Amino acid sequence: MNFKFPKDFLFGCASSSYQIESGCNEDGKGENVNEHYHTHFPEKFCGGNPAFAADFYHRYRSDILDMKELGLKAFRFSISWSRIFPKNPTDVNQAGIDYYDDMINALVEANIVPMFDLWHSDLPYWVIEMGGVVNPDFVQWFGTYAKLCFEKFGDRVKFWSTINEPSINVMASYAHAANAPFLKDMDLAIKACHNAILAHYNALRIYKSMNLPGKIGAVIHVEPTYSRSMDPKDQIAADRRFAFYAGWWLDPMLKGHYPEILADHEYIMSKLPEGYAEDLQKNFVKADFIGVNYYNPTHTKYSDTDPMGYENYKPEDLDVDSYGFVYYPQGLFDVAMYFKETYPGTHIMITENGIGREKWGNFEEERKDEYRVRYMREHLREVNRALQAGADIGGYFCWSIMDTNEGYAGGYRFIFGLVQVDFETKERFRRDSWYYYQKVIAEGMVD
Ligand code: NOJ
User: Whole-model pTM?
Assistant: First the structure.
């Protein structure tokens, strides 16, 4: 059976600045949180020194030519805030602007639609020194940065995302110490989340006032959350877990309020600043689209000991890859249907989907990635099935165009790229999955 995609479907690839750029101290760039914490707590980064990444900073022109041969219709990347504003919220580094300007031109020349994130896990370190996302001034700092990016690149960038995976980049960074600045403080986390949403609204408001020819939204990590049983306690626990993880961002971004199912969740809601509901209501600007990062589902059960009221668990009968993700392509279909039903009229893009496998030490063998071909085929079939069932999906972005630095989650230990990178020489080699994706794009279908 063949699954055809619509003619204008955007087959893309994604990556992010700190995960593939390197060039950390070059041309006036300031330190970002990952560089700072890597210097001071290298053990948290599994050897993932950002300076040793794939050197996209110097090789983007030839990498973009390779993307053109691959047939990519779109490339999703992020701007490093600390290249543009290295020292503080107002002093601009022209070299940083010139770099992204030329990269965007190279994409346009290659006929590849640029999609850019403003914040993909690499806040400038000065943000942390000035109080981090918890400081209400964050909204203004982010607005200044966003406005400059819109002015400089907004004529060519067709899709903007304010924040990538805030459930991790904000919530987990402040509440679970999973990412820089490695804090475990739910009070701070909830306040930081609220400011992040206000910063997102502010960037949207600025963008809309500029009449630029693109669309703006955010990229959310969406894990469909399945309940352990039909017991109402488990069912509510699963719904609340989903609401807290994904709905916590989606509802404010698409409806202007926090999820109703959390309204009586004292533990969370009491931590929000006074007047939070009016704050959202009066600043709300609806996102034009939502980028969905899909990797795996979550399974949840009721808990009477955890203050959140739920606990996640891994069912024994499901495959888990070496990165720790449950292998479940159907989850992508469920997510697309969830959007169709819960947020009718919302355009979505699958902005990340991919499989990480731990390197096993045979460099040439690691180019043969039949497991990724299978993964892409099965997930693309689900995207296609969802399109046929009426989901509004504009594109699919494979994570990642090349091998990445997974930072705190595994450094350089995992293979995610269609393009293999030799991190000693920075040489590039195409994997089997590169050729498979090339065929998918050329044919406009998945087998
Ligand atoms: C999602 C994140 O956006 C990206 O930075 C990360 O590398 C991938 N997940 C894979 O873990």
Answer: 0.98
